[in-house]
Design goal:
Spore Coat Polysaccharide Biosynthesis Protein SpsA, Chain A; 2 domains; eight-stranded mixed sheet; two-stranded antiparallel sheet; about 35% helix; binds uridine-5'-diphosphate; binds manganese (II) ion
Length: about 350
């Protein structure tokens, strides 16, 4: 081989190595990360100290926390974490009907979120949300006339409330707390006994029934329920009202679903709206906006019931043996399309 050939050969080798490296990195990013994510299930969630005793609350009858030994079924403060199999849906249904409850379901659909998500959210809620109970939907939007007409079952109503369109999506999201507080202090608060507040970019895929009711209800975040406390994405910057001390925090809750009695939700929304105002005045914004403030509130005032990630699952994670029947599925995030 001449010197020229050797040099050529060396360059070719570098060239192919670079191609392989690029493809490898791309492959890892595209396919490797979900695999890494699946390893999470081997991180223990902890065990419920009460698992040998039946838990109960006013809504779910007797719970069987031992029925799901592979997951955490209660919190350290004694609240049940509702997983498929630990409750009897028929008992929950009967108790809710006896109490003659009206359940509110609030959802915001501002800007492009309305066309993209609202119809499917409402249609699937008709099939799965608190079926057999009285339900009143509250849709908050800046364009009431664009709200799709969805055929409603008996005992189910839909009301539309007009809101202003904020300029930034972060502000639309955060403004929900103040607006919900106003609604809970008005007609919604008079009409409903219990209320769930949800994101619109998801749809129901299984029964979301009265087993989810309690004085205050928080949703475990599908991405974070196996993570150790120190890695959870709480706001840690002490300048924000949402800040939690570095070594503190229970679970990371998802703001796409929270609920409770009207009185409890009035306290929750008042706290969050006030904290958001305070941050704005100081020129800071919490890492995950209203969700950070919600997490601070539930850290100060522990929820009476926690919903397992089965209640609000992300198909992007893929299926897991411990997720029996997802009740809500996130829509794929199409931020480029809906955020402006
Ligand atoms: N939202 C809206 N219009 C917007 C931004 C937000 O209607 O421009 C509402 C909508 O209900 C949405 C929720 O606020 O589901 C939270 O925003 P998003 O779902 O984008 O936040 P993420 O779930 O990605 O944290
Ligand atoms: Mn969302």
């Amino acid at each position: 081989m001449s010197e020229k050939d050797t040099e050529n050969w060396a360059w070719k080798r570098i060239f192919w190595l670079l191609i392989l490296l690029t493809l490898g990195t791309l492959g890892l990013l595209l396919y490797g990360l979900p695999v890494v994510r699946q390893l999470e299930v081997f991180m223990p969630m902890g065990t419920c100290p009460l698992a040998r005793m039946p838990l109960s609350d006013n809504f779910t009858g007797l719970l069987r926390p031992w029925a799901r030994p592979e997951v955490l079924t209660c919190t350290s403060w004694g609240a049940p974490i509702i997983w498929d199999g630990i409750f009897d849906p028929a008992v929950a249904q009967q108790q809710a009907r006896q109490k003659n409850l009206t359940i509110g379901l609030t959802v915001f659909a501002v800007g492009r979120y309305l066309e993209k998500y609202l119809a499917r959210f409402l249609e699937t809620a008709e099939q799965h949300f608190m079926v057999g109970l009285r339900v009143v939907y509250y849709v908050f939007t800046e364009r009431p006339s664009a709200v799709p007409r969805v055929a409603l079952g008996q005992g189910r109503q839909l009301r539309v409330e007009r809101v202003d369109r904020e300029r930034r999506w972060q502000d639309v999201s955060m403004e929900r707390m103040r607006r919900l507080h106003v609604a809970l202090s008005g007609r919604l608060g008079r009409e409903a006994n219990f209320v769930f507040c949800m994101d619109v970019d998801q749809h129901f895929s299984g029964a979301f029934g009265p087993e989810a009711l309690a004085e205050s209800v928080a949703q475990l975040h599908a991405w974070h329920y196996h993570w150790p406390q120190r890695l959870l994405p709480f706001e840690r910057d002490a300048r924000s009202a949402a800040a939690l001390p570095f070594d503190q925090g229970d679970f990371y809750y998802h703001a796409a679903v929270f609920g409770g009695s009207v009185a409890a939700l009035r306290r929750l929304t008042a706290h969050c709206a006030q904290a958001i105002r305070q941050d704005r005045a100081r020129g800071v914004e919490a890492r995950w906006h209203d969700e950070s403030h919600l997490n601070k509130f539930f850290w100060l005032q522990k929820p009476a019931k926690v919903l397992s990630p089965e209640f609000c699952w992300s198909s992007e994670i893929g299926m897991r043996a411990e997720i029996h029947r997802p009740r809500l599925l996130w829509a794929t995030k199409e931020y480029a399309l809906v955020r402006y």
